[in-house]
UniProtKB/TrEMBL annotation:
Gfo/Idh/MocA-like oxidoreductase N-terminal domain location: 4-124
Naturally occurring in which organism (per UniProt): Faecalicatena orotica
Protein name: Putative dehydrogenase
InterPro entries: Gfo/Idh/MocA-like_OxRdtase_N, Gfo/Idh/MocA_Oxidoreductase, GFO_IDH_MocA-like_dom, NAD(P)-bd_dom_sf
One MF annotation (Gene Ontology) recorded for this entry: nucleotide binding
Pfam families, per the entry: GFO_IDH_MocA (PF01408), GFO_IDH_MocA_C3 (PF22725)
Boundaries of every GFO/IDH/MocA-like oxidoreductase domain copy: 134-267
């Protein structure tokens, strides 16, 4: 069996807690090199995961090791440049989410992968959840009828990360929308089957982030808080469906962490986390729950899908074009929130 020779760029949290442990468990993949501007970080993970080569410069790693595929785990600002560098070296790429900072970058990445006939995917692992998979099946089977409205939410009561680059606009491109909201947006748009967008409008706030206060995810410095702490948006699609997206790092709500996707169809409605389906049968209103559903490891399934797609053994679930679509929505939501006007999509 051919094994995919992989390299990892970025030896931070996501590489350490998800991708490297996952790849280590896969017979069909082998990590041959890791790179980080912080050479000590690359060395530490190389030792921990038994990776033979570690580097400080990703271009040197790509040219010396010539891996089949690369996983990009660096701050968002570098996603585009590093993805292009890897594609130009003939590597398939799994880039962490969000695809990039701008839609122009995401488009460039998609084009380059298409031109070179290489796999490009993004770390939108919620798509691999058992809940989303079952709902997708029901949507495809027409069980909802027309879905005329949906809601995607990820709110944290006080979840402004006190580490890393999450409040640095230049590095990340934004706050909760581009970081956590992107996951819910991606999964909701996947369920809605990417309809053409007519217009987008949004508001945002940075009031709590800039003021400071209690924290549940490490303490942050309000003087260095450069991103939004919440975005509240509305999308209208050409088929008449609408989608609300709400996301925050900090908001005055009851729950510590509230993430959900809700679908409203003419025949059924559904709430995803936890999975419940609402309908009507035999003259009665019905609620269906799925208490014994087998839980999957979403990150693992996402990594396996990428590896198997590179080996030509599985269809890729998260495509580059879908990543560009999500990036387009994120950019439009920010533009509308900043300008105070709806953004009409072309
Ligand atoms: N899919 C998910 O649920 C999920 C979860 C967390 C993070 N992420 C994404 O993963 C990416 C990294 O996040 P993280 O939490 O691991 O961050 P992190 O800060 O822990 O790690 C980033 C690493 O990149 C390194 N780096 C920075 N510039 C570099 C360069 N030019 N060359 C090589 N290395 C460089 C840093 O030194 C650091 O070690 C982000 O895009 C983030 O959005 C995704």
């Amino acid at each position: 069996m051919k094994r995919l020779r992989m390299a990892v760029i970025g030896a931070g949290q996501i590489a350490k807690v998800t991708h490297l442990p996952n790849f280590r468990e896969m017979d069909q993949a082998e990590v041959v090199g890791i790179c980080d501007v912080n050479l000590d970080a690359a060395k530490a993970l190389a030792e921990q995961f038994g990776i033979q080569n570690f580097y400080q410069d990703h271009k040197k790693m790509l040219s010396e090791l010539k891996p089949d595929a690369v996983t990009i785990c660096v701050p968002n600002k570098f996603h585009c440049r590093m993805t292009l560098d890897a594609l130009e070296c003939g590597c398939h790429v799994l880039c962490e989410k969000p695809p990039a900072i701008t839609v122009r970058e995401a488009w460039q990445m998609e084009e380059e992968a298409r031109k070179r006939n290489l796999v490009l995917s993004y770390g939108f692992h919620f798509r691999h959840s058992e809940h989303v998979a079952l709902m997708k099946e029901k949507v495809r089977n027409g069980e909802f009828g027309t879905i005329y409205h949906a809601k995607a939410q990820w709110h944290r009561r006080r979840g402004i990360p006190g580490w890393g680059n999450f409040t640095n606009k230049e590095m990340q491109g934004g706050g909760p929308l581009i970081d956590i909201g992107a996951h819910m947006l991606d999964a909701a748009l996947y369920l809605l089957e990417y309809p053409e967008i007519t217009y987008v409008c949004a508001t945002s706030s940075d009031r709590i982030g800039k003021r400071g206060g209690c924290s549940l995810m490490g303490s942050w410095n309000p003087d260095c808080f450069q991103v939004e702490d919440g975005v509240f948006g509305f999308l209208r699609f050409e088929n008449g469906t609408s989608l609300l997206i709400e996301t925050s790092f900090a908001i005055n709500q009851k729950e510590k962490d509230l993430r959900n996707i809700t679908l409203y169809g003419e025949k059924l409605g559904a709430s995803l986390f936890p999975l419940e389906v609402y309908g009507e049968k035999d003259g009665q209103l019905t609620d269906s729950t799925y208490p014994f559903m087998e839980m999957r490891d979403w990150h693992m399934d996402s990594d396996k899908n990428f590896v198997n797609a590179c080996l030509g053994q599985e269809e890729l679930l998260v495509t580059a074009a879908q990543g560009t679509y999500v990036q387009k929505v994120i950019e439009a939501l920010y533009k509308s929130a900043d300008s105070g006007r709806p953004v009409i999509m072309e």
